[in-house]
Write a structure and sequence with these properties.
mainly alpha; two-stranded antiparallel ribbon; 17 helices; globular; transmembrane; Sodium-dependent transporter
Length: 435
């Protein structure tokens, strides 16, 4: 005899819905357990707003301000480029930084997830951003390796001329070491990244301030440096190439369009004032870059070197300039250790962004995503590393590293930042704020 159901068909539907909900709840709990097992502190928010600001500012400072910003200042004539950079930073880059941080916090899903919310087709743009940061990181690890090599050399007080350095295998060896070192904080989680940042950021600022005071008191090139960095002609401000480079640098140095802010933003607490936090990050970021200029150029001018040396400025010119001044040993040790710490923090941020992106594809565990990222970066970074060895790999007449930097540092970063901001604004209309 068929069992009596008091509500007939409705009872069957209700029972079926209950079973489906139970199954869905079980799957959700299983997915959460699996994710937590693979990631550890992956979804953990920053310990405090201060931890978030310090960690993000430390990641943003990096070589984008200590290496790239000074050499662009030298190439673009100083004062005019500095004014254009500050205008682009405040008017364009800062608002987009707030948009990216908000999107990361709102979606809690990193680069791919943030763009996926904007629509089925928009998710493909997330892959473009992920590929961009992958390209930047591939040569950024090489540059960080240079700072590591020169930091070690500084203890001996005998800097190897950059021409001699690039004829050996130092660039390749240092690249491999930095790639391995940068993985350690990622395996330890967000808390380890906070601790690294709380060491590197204050150390860098103290070292820059100390050497700046020394340059002001002792360097013969201080006056010439101030004139170079603050003086400009009206015609220079009408040069479109100056504004193009300045816009690209403002995006590059504040990590716009590169996925960093989406990744770090996913760990931000719901009550954090993002415009204020982004403003502080931009202020510290710009201050570090400008300070680096005032620290470096007095030594460059005092030694009679050409400020328009290009990407090799701090490695080809600075060691010789430091070796010729009183207390050059102390200055050299302090400066290159600070450079390495700042660059290393940015490498950790880059790796985290890439690993989060791979994990967001849902093809593997978080730790396996780390292994995939390291393997891919090893393959992609080798040409840049080898372009500054005896092999001298090049694309046309330009070293591979320089060609990749010129491609990604302006055109692609500007494109990714502006298009991405429009898509993320659209995504914001389709996702509720985080709890």
């Amino acid at each position: 005899m068929e069992q009596f159901r008091p509500f007939g068909r409705l009872g069957e539907v209700t029972e079926t819905n209950a079973e489906n909900q139970a199954e869905q709840s079980f799957r959700t709990s299983e997915e959460a357990r699996h994710e937590n097992a693979n990631v550890g502190s992956y979804h953990r928010v920053w310990k405090s707003d201060t931890a978030f600001i310090v960690s993000t500012a430390a990641a943003a400072i990096g070589l984008g301000n200590l290496w790239r910003f000074p050499y662009l200042l030298g190439e673009q004539g100083g004062g005019a480029f500095l004014i254009a950079y500050l205008v682009c930073l405040l008017v364009v880059a800062l608002p987009i930084a707030v948009i990216e941080l908000a999107a990361g916090r709102r979606t809690r899903s990193g680069v791919l997830g943030a763009f996926r919310v904007a629509g089925p087709r928009s998710r493909y743009f997330g892959y473009i951003v992920l590929f961009l940061i992958f390209l930047i990181t591939s040569y950024y690890l090489v540059l960080t390796g240079w700072t590591f090599s020169y930091a070690l050399d500084s203890f001996d007080g005998d800097f190897q001329p950059f021409d001699a350095y690039q004829q050996g295998w130092g660039s390749l060896v240092a690249f491999l070491l930095v790639l391995v070192f940068a993985c350690i904080p990622l395996f330890l989680g967000v808390g380890a990244i906070e601790k690294v940042a709380f060491v590197t950021a204050p150390t860098l600022l103290v070292v820059l301030a100390g050497i700046g005071v020394y340059a002001y008191l002792e360097s013969d090139g201080w006056g010439q440096s101030v004139e170079f960095l603050t003086g400009f002609e009206g015609a220079d401000l009408m040069d479109a190439s100056v504004w193009y480079k300045a816009l690209g640098q403002s995006f590059y140095s504040l990590m716009i369009g590169q996925g960093y802010l989406l990744t770090y933003g996913r760990h931000v607490a719901a009550g954090t004032n993002l415009p204020r936090a982004a403003g502080v990050i931009a202020f510290v970021n710009a201050g570090a870059g400008i300070s680096a200029g005032f620290v470096l150029f007095p030594f460059v001018f005092a030694s009679g070197a050409d400020p328009a040396q290009g990407p090799e400025l701090i490695f080809a010119v600075l060691p010789n300039a430091i070796s010729e001044i009183p207390f050059g040993y102390v200055v050299g040790v302090s400066l290159f250790i600070a450079f390495f710490l700042a660059a290393f923090t940015s490498c950790v941020a880059s790796l985290k962004t890439i690993v989060d992106g791979i994990f967001g594809m849902r093809i593997c565990s978080y730790r396996r995503a780390m292994l995939i990222a390291v393997g891919a970066l090893l393959f992609a970074g080798l040409p840049s590393a080898l372009s500054y060895t005896g092999l001298e790999l090049s694309i046309g007449s330009e070293a591979v590293l320089d060609r990749v930097d010129n491609l990604t540092g302006s055109a692609l970063v500007i494109f990714a930042g502006i298009i991405g901001a429009g898509l993320l604004i659209k995504a914001g209309r389709h996702r509720r704020p985080p709890s």
